[in-house]
Amino acid sequence: EKVNQEENTLTQTEESNERREENNFDDWLSYLKEKDYRPLPNRPVLEKENRYENFIYYRESLQDYLLIQLVTAVSSDIDYKIGEYLIGNIDDNGYLTIGLDDISLDLNIKRDKIEKILSLVQNFDPPGVGARNLQECLLIQIEYLDISDIKIEKIIKYHLRDLAGKSFKKIAKDLKISISEVQSLADVIKKSFDPKPGRRVGNFKEVKYILPDLVIMRKIEGGYRVILNDNYLPQIKINSRYKTILEAGNNISS
Length: 254
Prior knowledge:
- It is built from 11 helices and 4 strands.
- By secondary structure, the chain is mainly α.
- The protein has 2 domains: about 10-35 and about 50-200, no CATH class; about 215-254, no CATH class.
- The strands form 2 sheets. The protein has a two-stranded antiparallel sheet with strand order 1-2. The chain has a two-stranded antiparallel sheet with strand order 3-4.
- A hairpin with a 5-residue loop joins β3 and β4 (about 225-230).
- α2 runs antiparallel to α3 and α3 packs across α5 (about 110-120).
- Mean pLDDT is about 75; it is low at about 35-60.
């Protein structure tokens, strides 16, 4: 019976891994669609008021993380301006959502200058960030992972759709290798590459609330009431011996 339980556990683990790999392929497939390169809309400026959002602490965002790297990577104001604009148009998955021609028009800066700064941003952590499509994202990661297998590079360049559709026979025929070798290469790609590198930074589902030490409440009859919010404060106790010593010291000084 114990053996059967172990076999069932092993089977469930394998099925879970297979589902995770299939989801990974689904992620890749979603990025094979043509991306929309429209600029992101301007965010409305919210009035400063006592909203509950002001008491919420968010973890460092991807954009914040990239801007920190940008500060140490550029030496001129114009380069920082371009980099800041690029980073502001990188989505949470790590992809650039605006075309370089649009950036050139918006900033009135030549495209080749923007391409230079984009290449710089694409060298930032996490690997693959700043890519304009899935193919570019994975090719950036090839350099980071120091993978020298030309067959993997060819699969990424010419057979991403076939890989997502598990058309291993077609890939094998084009690369003149066996189907089993294609399967092995696919496994390497699935395990080593990340189609959503931006998700490695920040956790927008995790929200931490800042608890105030004091709460000021307005009374119905007028005036205010100050309440100490000590439910979450550490309880400090003084040893009775030290208390006696302190009291004795006060008596002597008086």
